[in-house]
Amino acid sequence: MKLNQLKQTFEEVFGRLADRIFFAPGRINLIGEHTDYNGGHVFPLAITFGTYALAAKREDDQLRFYSINFDKQGVIEGSLQGLEYKGTDGWTNYPKGMTKLIIEAGFPIDSGYDVLFYGNIPNGAGLSSSASIELATGVMLEGLFGLAIDRIEMVKIGQKVENDYIGVNSGIMDQFTIGMGKEGAAIWLDCETLEYEYAPIELPDASIVIMNTNKRRELASSKYNERRGECEEALSRLQKQVNVKSLGELTPEQFEQHRTAIGDAVLEKRAQHAVYENARTIEALDKLKEGDVEAVGQLMNESHRSLERDYEVTGKELDTLVYAAWEQPGVIGARMTGAGFGGCAIAIVKDENVESFIREVGNRYKEKCGIEAEFYMANIGGGARELMREEME
Ligand code: GLA
After folding, report:
1. Which are the catalytic amino acids?
2. 127 Cβ inside 6 Å of ligand 1
3. What is the longest distance spanned by two Cα atoms in the chain?
4. Is residue 32 within 8 Å of 382, Cβ to Cβ?
5. What mean pLDDT is predicted for residues 198-204?
6. From CA 191, how far away is CA 358, in angstroms rounded?
7. Taking the CB of the first residue and of the last residue of the chain, which one, N or C, has fewer CB atoms within 10 A?
């Protein structure tokens, strides 16, 4: 959908013109999965798909929300006086929560607003559409009300909305990537200290392909919380022997030395994933800097195996896509991305092989899982921002 159409829809829905247009991307993660809440490293990047927010201030304290993606629900009304979470408010809880927590963080929002959202992130694909709408709302409020919100603070507010307001116990990766993304670069982030570095992704003859299982991510949040709990338990058992604050502080060597302290096979596997995945993510930065994309691909493959066997968050659909990808010519590496339990996988594929890759992996997946996979080329875009004139057409 073109921005002109979005502007026109805003006018039809609200009977006035939109003042400003904002955008927040979605994200994929190259490597470093289920490490963020374990105090480890992640290596994600912002993509050019995302959430558009067209907005205008109001004179009163009313809030009017409209989403082209949920157009059947029509305009949903709210007010600055009614920002509490309500299950029946559905998707508007995201912008409501962001508004509430930004006010609580001390930023004055002195009037209501009309906002239209449109997201072109494939639905339920695990590419962080919820963090995207949170940060789109964040930059919208910042722009409309002239607030000076430090970007990392906005990222943290987004995570707080997710954790405390929506009730999903996720880490910082998604909001950080979406708030801090940079065109052409992945973000190598230490989730314990929030120190980060941009790593340019230069793939002269290859591309990143996103493969969508198109499988609904059932039970994803309860399984996610279960894994978090298992890691916390493994950590507290390890802490009886070693003085560490998080699993991310342990090198594989230290882990091997103390792993028996965990005393439970399942918990040991979970912790093993967290520790080794963090080590792989640290290594991936070095390899990328050396221009050794093949080595990064190998690390991605190992990451998938670990997520399959030790962390057990892949499932038939993601495994089928990734196994099929590994068999194709021109594939440098492939793995699931995001929380798992359905959602998307990614592959780095030589450009000359992309066409046959998509065809072959798609066929194999259809045969085995009975679902059509979808494929998108990942372009690395910038973080949440107001769209400037030249970006508008
Ligand atoms: C989800 C969460 C992130 C992160 C990933 C797994 O995307 O929102 O915080 O934990 O899963 O790496």
Report:
1. 174
2. no
3. 67
4. no
5. 96
6. 34
7. C
Question: Within a 10 A sphere around the Cβ of 240, how many other Cβ atoms?
Answer: 10
pLDDT tens for each residue of 340-364: 999 999 999 999 999 999 999 999 9
Pair 237, 262: CB distance under 8 Å: yes
Measure CA 148 to chain center.
Answer: 25
Q: What Å distances lie between residue 191 and 32, 177, 343, CA to CA?
A: 10, 11, 23
Q: Whose CA is nearest to atom 8 of ligand 1?
A: 170
Domains assigned to the chain = 3-200+381-392 (3.30.230.10), 206-220+268-377 (3.30.70.890)
Q: Rounded to whole angstroms, how far apart are CA atoms 162 and 3? A: 28
Q: Is the CB of residue 339 below 6 angstroms from any atom belonging to ligand 1?
A: yes
CA-closest candidate to residue 117, choices 106, 129, 100: 129
The answer to whether the CB of 53 falls within 8 A of the CB of 136 is yes
- Cα(32) to centroid of ligand 1, in Å? 10
Q: How many CA atoms lie within 13 A of 205 on its CB side?
A: 7
Distance 171 CA to ligand 1 centre (A): 6
Pairing of strands 113-119, 62-67: parallel
